Amino acid sequence: AVSAGGVPRRAHVAGRDSFPLRRVQPGGWSQSRYQRAAMEAWHQNAGDVTAATVQLADRVGADVVVVAGDVRATGMIAAQMPERWQDLVVRTDAGSRAGGADQTMLDDLTVQTIAEVADQRITAALDRFGVQEDVGAGLDAVVSALQRNQVDTMLIVDDPSANGELWIGPEPTEIAVDPGQLSAMSVDDPQRVRADAALVRALVGTDAALTVLGADEAPELTDGVGAVLRYVDEGTPGRGNG
Q: Which end of the chain is less congested by CB atoms within 10 angstroms, N or C?
C-alpha cells in the first residue's frame, strides 16, 4: 500500500492449507477429492489475501487496488472484496510468479491506472467549477471563500515561478490579501507568508481538498486559482455584489 509522500506498507500472507495448490491428476477414486481440496485451499488463501488487502486499503484510503497474478486467483480475490472497493479493483496477470514474469509490467500498469484516476478527478473538479460560472474564480474570490469556510476543492495551476504573498492569522480562516482585512477580523499581529503556503494551510484547516492543474489544463483560470464551493449564498463574492 502506497500513499502520497508516505512510507510503503506491506503485508505477507502465508497459505493456511497444505494441500497442493495445483489441481493434480492422480487418477482413480481419489482424483475428485484432490481436486476439491485444491480448490478449497485456493479459496481460503484468496480470502486471507483479500482480508490483508482490505486492511491495507482502509489504512491508506486507497483510490486504486491493483490485483496481479494468476487469472483464477485474482478473480477469487476480486470477488471477495467488499462492495466499497469493487469499483476500484484493477486485475492483471502482469507481475505473476510465473517463470520470467516481469515486475516492470505491473509497475507500469499501476502508474497508468493512478494517472487515469487523477485525470478523472481533474475533469470532475473542472466540471463542477464550470457549473458555478460566476463565483470562485481568482485569488480574491478564493481567499474570501476560505474566510467563510466555503471551499470544497481548490484548483491551482502548478507554477514554479509563483512568488505571491498573503496575510494570515492564527486560525485557518484568518487569511487575507492585505493586513487590513485581518485587522477588521480582530487579528492583532497578521503575518505575511507565501501565498501557496497560506492557501494550503487554510485548506487543511478547513478540511478542503486540493487539485493541482497543469498550465494547459486551465489556461483561462483567473490568477491560476479557483475554488469549487460547498455552498453559494447571497454573500458569496461574484454573485453580482462584488
A: C
Angle (CA) 108-97-21 rounded to 5° is: 140
Per the document, the length of the chain is 242
Cell (9 digits) for 67: 490485483
Distance CA 142, CA 140 (A): 6
Higher pLDDT, 31 or 67: 67
Cα(132)–Cα(19) distance, rounded to whole angstroms?
Answer: 61
Q: What is the mean pLDDT of the chain?
A: 84
Yes or no: say if 189 and 199 are a contact pair by the CB < 8 Å rule: no
Measured CA to CA, the distance from residue 92 to residue 30 in angstroms comes to 34
Mean pLDDT of the region 59-70: 87
- Look at the alpha carbons of 137, 138, 143, 146 in this order and tell me if their dihedral is positive or negative: positive
Cβ atoms of 46 and 80 closer than 8 Å = yes
Q: Name the band, by pLDDT with cuts 50, 70 and 90, for residue 171.
A: very high
- Domain 126-229 fold: 60s Ribosomal Protein L30; Chain: A; (3.30.1330)
Residue pair 176/167 in contact (Cβ under 8 Å)? The answer is yes
Give the pLDDT of residue 68. 86
The H or E element spanning position 176 is strand 175-176
For cell 512510507, the residue is: 7
- Of 12-21, 101-110, 190-199, highest mean pLDDT: 190-199
Give domain limits for the chain. Answer: 28-101, 126-229
Sheet holding 175-176, edge to edge: 175-176, 165-168, 191-194
